């Protein structure tokens, strides 16, 4: 017959998910505690899509270049309003202006740089709740003069709610693990005496799609195909339970 203490130690080491490092922290009957780590993860459909659309324009003078980019940016913002994008979900993320040069080969074979006007850029970030219309908005943005996509992303407006739900599930997993260990060891599980929950690990709020700085093509009028996918959130909860007398 296996001694009670030996049976309990065996049950603790058999906990699902324990690594050798975790086993070093295995409890004993002497400390009157059961230590477990509960884990949970969930995939949630995003509830908004975001895109950064840029306009790059060139002009002979700084004013000409900047005015051209500004005019296209105003057109893009007006287009977003026709898509019912709230003002709070429209924002400028970058405005740049810089001189442009071009390489000129001299008769002696050397190459020099000569002034070639100015280049201005204006980038606007748009966030849409109606994700199905994002591809159409991106295509129609060309009509306003847009010629760059700086990044597309999908996210959750309330990521804290998703994280809270996963933490609750992780705590339930910890409780279930502790109960199984107590039953296997022939002891009575007591109350929880300590809970530690580090920050939940999840996908970024605005995970970029692998198409940064891509130039928009004007070859077709079809909406840009986009797939939202899901956002994964994971959590761990370290819990300590007392062993009832």
Name the descriptors:
2 domains, Translation Initiation Factor IF3, 245 residues, elongated, 4-stranded antiparallel β-sheet, alpha+beta, Alpha-Beta Plaits, 5 helices
Instruction: Summarize model confidence as the mean pLDDT.
Output: 82
How large a portion of the residues is in β-strands, by DSSP E?
35-45%
pLDDT < 50 stretches = 1-30, 204-219
Shape designation: elongated
The residue fraction in helices comes out at: 25-40%
CATH architecture of the largest domain: 2-Layer Sandwich
What would you give as the CATH superfamily of the largest domain?
Protein of unknown function (DUF541), domain 2
Q: What series of H and E elements makes up the topology?
A: HHEEHEEHEHEEE
**What is the terminal-to-terminal distance?**
22 Å
Assign the CATH class of the largest domain.
Alpha Beta
By DSSP, the count of extended strands is: 8
Alpha-carbon Rg, integer: 29 Å
- Would you give the CATH topology of the largest domain? Alpha-Beta Plaits
Main beta sheet:
4 strands, antiparallel
Total discrete domains: 2
Compute the number of helices: 5
User: What would you call the structural class?
Assistant: alpha+beta
